[in-house]
Amino acid sequence: MRTWKSVLVVAASAASIALAPMAASAESATLKTAKDRGTLLCSGHNGSYFGFVEVNDKNEWKGLDIDLCRALAIAVLGSQDKVQIVPLSWAQRFPALQSGDVDVVIKATGWTMGRDTELGLQFSLPYFFGGAQIMVRKELDITTAEGLDGGTVCVAAGTTIERIVADHLKTIGIEHKMVSYEKTAEVISGYTSGRCDAYAAWGPNLAVLRATQIDAPDEHVILEDKLSSEPIAAAMRQGDDEWVDIVNWMLAALIKAEELGVTSANVEEMTANPPNPTVARHLGVDAGMGERLGLRDTWAREMITAMGNFGEIYERNLGQGSPYKLDRGLNNLWSNGGVLYAPILD
Amino acid sequence: MAAPPTMSRLEWLRHELTRRAFATPADTAITLAVAAILAWLIWLDLDWAVVRAVWSAEAVDTCRAKDAGACWSVIAARHRLILFGLYPYEEHWRSTLACGAIIATVVLSCIPWFWALRRLATLWVTGFAGYFLLMEGSPIGLTQVTTDQWGGLSLTLFLFASVVLLGMPMGLGLALMRRSSLPLVQLVASLVIDFIRSLPLLTTLFTAAVVVPILLPDWLQGDKIWRVIIAFALFFACYQAEVFRGGFQAIPKGQFEAGQAMGLGYWRVLALIALPQVFRNALPSTINMVVITFKETAIVVIIGFFDILASANAAFGTGDWAPYYMEVYVFVGLIYWGFIFSLGQYGEYLKDRMAVARH
Fold this sequence. Notes:
The complex is a heterodimer. By secondary structure, chain A is an alpha/beta fold. Chain A has 13 helices and eleven strands. Mean pLDDT of chain A is 86; it is low at 1-25. Helices cover 40% and strands 16% of the residues of chain A. The two termini of chain A are 38 Å apart. Chain B has 15 helices and one strand. Chain B has helices spanning 9-20, 25-51, 60-63, 73-84, 92-109, 117-136, 152-178, 183-197, 201-215, 218-221, 224-249, 253-261, 266-296, 308-316, 325-358; one strand at 306-307. The longest helix of chain B is centred in the last third of the chain and has 34 residues, at 325-358. Chain B is globular. The chains are: A alpha/beta, B mainly alpha.
């Protein structure tokens, strides 16, 4: 009996070793479609979503999510111009993905169980973390939600934020009143007119609104309480594992590049004299990055040359290089106090 | 109330004012108070929109000044985004001309000289082909711009014109089917009309844009914009069919019977007796439908089209311009108002003209 089992185990592992190269070289169906088409179809927005998806004065897309789409286009098709951004509403993004209108949804999309299971999606590594946060006027002189007892909180109606904030305040035993408005502009005027003591929203949005839509941003503080942390990830159709691999390693390569200190400024020099074997492989000086994904060995180098590493993309769209000046916070590398990490590039 | 012929307009106005607004001291007080409040409100708006407004596109920072009024700089800097959406920057002249082609087509269709089947057909084919060739570009050797990059005002106008021009004949067809004496034809028309009218427009468009690609094979799908136009036109047609039906029902049955007694066939009774009256009876509701449709085109933003409202949203959706959404909405509102007011005025003109025809 025992011998039988070990024979089986050995046979199974032998088979898996024999089959492994075959599995790795199977080309992703989505990749093949994109190559045949000559463009990658990526999600845009029907309007603008601060920092993530915007349109510049030349009627061109820009933003964190758009840059990730471009990076993916470089990885799979070799040029950032080979991406076509398809404007999609929030409600439309998943049906559009299922029907093949887009190859991937990179659109400030939270990774939830319902989407992962019932909607038949697959999610990539999270590339952004944001959660509900609360802003108050500085004159209240509080730093945590403990100080909000008896206060009024303004939120946008119909979002998860409303429930998260109510739960949190109830848990820590704070009496409060909740006022919900239909539109962001109404929440802002409710807050600035003094109707509410606090303004609760998705953290990154809150910071952006404070920076751009409130007269004296310095007179408002965002409380330390982190009420939730929603991982934002790229969404793909279920069933094309090789495509998920490509998107995952695209994100990993951008994050890893930051960790390795490779930037768009020094990538050429690093390629000429790689400081260590990891960088050499990362930049395609040594083989290894491409074949396993069905891509070119130099895809990560090309991507970083054009778009920069993850840190550069962040700073350009949300951070110090943008009007929003959003701190990295959670979205820093693990080694700098954040939660972003890349799997091992072996 | 029209001025009596013995008075000039000005005299009549003064007469009416003294009679209605300044008859008693209490009336005078109320009139003055209301006038003062109105003047104050108008001054507030003017002060914001003109006096303290910032006009130059370069000076984003001057808009941030504490006492700055409206920041029209946002329009100066972003109007091309609002008008043309995602259309490539260097090719905007094409979008401008295409807009012109659609407006010209609609305006010319409103002129009675064109109201003959052949002239109208020629005009529409020329107008729409012109729009398509300019916007798409590849058949006439320009850089190809695919339909998903069309946007802004030119997309809104195109959607509106296509929906009305396709929907109007479809609506007439459905109305005739519903009046048919063949039970099967009548049943089909009733089912289609009642089914589509009981669905919200949003559902119909969402189905055409998002669900159809899942259900149909690739070669049957066509481009998203055409699917949406057809679905929207069908929706319009179902409502318009009921408007036409009302127009038919207002005609005394005796007229049809008289036509038949004269030996006229179905089509000639229709063309010579019924339709001229149907159009006249249905005119006010038709103008209403057309105006509503113009405004409803904004709903396509939900299925990812960059119509003028979506591009307006994108125009203020960036760090520098985020606080100035009011200015952008005022600008877009004026554009909508311009078109809809013209449509309304045209409706008035038609009504007068038809009233003349009646006598």
